[in-house]
Structure formats: structure tokens, C-alpha cells
Amino acid sequence: MQPKQGTATPYSVKITPEYKLDHLKSQWLSIEQSMDVPFFMTWTWISNWIKTYSPKIVLTYAYYENKLVGIGLFTLSKEVRQGFIKAHQYRLHQMGDPKYDQIWMEYNDFLCHKEHLKEVTKVCINALMDYDDLWDEIIISMIKLSRGKEVIKNNKLASIILFNPRYSVDLNKIPRNKDYLATLKSNTRYQIRHSIRLYEGIHGPIHMKKAKTVKEGLKLFQRAGEFHLKRWSDSGYKNEKFINFHQNLIQQSFHEDNIGLYEISSGKTTIAILYFHIVNKTVYFYLQGINYEPNQKLKPGLVAHTIMTQHFHEQGMHIYDYMGGYSQYKCQLASQNEALVTVRIQKPRLQFSIEKLGQKIKKITKKSNS
Length: 370
What we know:
The protein is α+β, with helices and mostly antiparallel strands. Helices cover 38% and strands 31% of the residues. The protein has helices spanning 21-32, 43-53, 98-101, 117-131, 145-154, 186-202, 214-231, 240-253, 300-314, 328-333, 350-369, and strands spanning 4-7, 11-16, 57-64, 67-81, 85-92, 111-112, 137-144, 158-170, 206-210, 259-266, 269-279, 282-290, 319-324, 335-346. Strands 1, 2, 3, 4, 5, 6, 7, 8, 9, 10, 11, 12, 13 and 14 form a 14-stranded mixed β-sheet that branches. Strand 1 (4-7) and strand 2 (11-16) form a beta hairpin. The chain is globular. The termini are far apart. Mean pLDDT is 93; it is low at 1-8.
């Protein structure tokens, strides 16, 4: 497959499956280093994705007046729905296989200068449509809602197929001389304070420990998995590829200070282990291993996140981001922000028209039976 050049004035697009990692690195960093990007769009994350999984990538390069302003990495995969709907998909920064995509990439998008993002998205998608006949759908997963709406506005064949609420704490709104706990609702404050007293009475003083070496980080990641497996039937710790990805990420990036693993304990008893990605003064809460005890008045998650939020507030961080997905504790500890959505762009295929008709009939039937 030869590189293909699309054109749009004053934008142009180059699509190619051919690249050298060192060259891609320099191109990626030339854009990343001139702007603030979420951790999942940093070269740290993207390069680990490439090195760990060796995906077959189709690269889209966007130029404005011959200057590189945007990059998107797509992979081609196949999805079967309803047993007979077969869709070949180009996926942005994903592989279309749950074993590989369980790393839960969020804030997905084209890497692009903000002032060009809207047009770059439009011209890149249009160029992909003309690039080959291998695909039926383009999937952009976990993109911001406002960006998803832009894609839909510019393409009549696009739709939102998945919606994920998002939560975070704006640490800048908390005065430096004020505790985070004091900003919470009275009932939540009571639960946390009561839980802390119970922990201290049962196990001993509460304290926090940060992994200071790669070895300590890997050990905490492994121990978090022991708790995670007890809590979640679909835990990523059942997936060897998920484990490999994060072990590689910790080994390669720990000393860049954008990986944080912490253990919250009461006496000698672990309350929780939390795993964070940190970039541009934003703390992305990624994963937790919680030690749940029979006493339901102990609130390990609330206690651990309160301690960590206060810690990062004192460290001068700006945002404590819980990212996508609903949980009761997020509602208690954070504010809801702009959602993350998955956008699907389809070619006008007969099978998709049949699929949509079936979905409409199913909704009408369900409504009439309710």
C-alpha cells in the first residue's frame, strides 16, 4: 500500500502505513511539546502502546500551508454485531480487540494544535474515506463530547454510540490554606471522618507511602491487582496484555515523574493502592486496589481519595481527574464535567440500514410492552 496524498486548501493530508519510530517520535513531540495534552496523548503513552503491542498503523498527517499540525494513528480491525453485521473499522489509537484496548485510553483525539483541530479532524476523516475500500466504519473512542458533536456536525454519517460521564476536582478553586475535606458535603465529611477514626481505632494511624523506585512501583502495581481481582470480574489483571502494557509503562516512564503509585495504610493494614498518571499539573486517577473489610462503616475508597486529593492539592496540582465512568464515590468527591463519548462514522452500507431498522423496531416493541 503506497502513501496517498489528499488535498484541502490550505490543509493537506498524507496517509501512509509506513513509518520509522524515531521519525514518528520527533514529529509527535514537535506538536506535543508546544501544547498541553492529556497523558493518553503523550509520546510516553503512545510509544509504549506501539512498542508493547506492535499495532499495524495507518498514519494520517495533517499539514497547514505545508507545516505539520496534526497526527492520527489508526488501526484496521473487524467487529461482528448481532451475529451478522460485519464491520471493518479504522480505530483511532485503538486496536479493536478487548485484550489490547482494555488499557482504557481516554481523552482520545487527533494530536493537533488547538486552532487547527476542528479542520484537521474534518480533512483527515474525509481523506480516510477516499483512501481505500477496506473499511466500513471509523471509530473514535472516548473523545470529549464537544469534539464528538463537531465530528457529527461535519459528517452526516456520524453518530455517538457510547456516553461516559466524567468527574474531577478543580484544585485551583480550593484555597491553599484550606483542606479539601472541608469543601465536601456534610454527610460525606461525616462518613470520611468517622471512617478515619474507626481505622485508627482498629488498625492504627493512617499514613501514605509513595513508590520511590521502579521496583517499588511494580510491586505496588502487582499488589493493587490482588485487590482489584477480588472486586471486578472483568479486571484488567486477568489480561496478560494489560499487565504487560503497564509494567512496561512503569519501567520506561517512572523516572519522568509522570507515574505515581501510592499505598494508603492504617497501621500495618493496607487501605488502598492508587495508580496515577500525572502531566501538566493534572493528576489522572487510573486504577485502584481497595482492601474492603466486613465493617461497612469503613470507607476505604473515600478515605484514600480524600488523602490523595489533599496531597496533590498541597503539591500545587491543578486538577484531580477521575476521568470517565459513573461511580457513587465520584459523585461524593468530585464534580461532573464534560462527558467522554465514542463516535462512529459509517459508510452508507445496506447492512447498516438493516441494523438501524432493527434497532428502531426493538425500541418501538420495548416501548409498547412497557
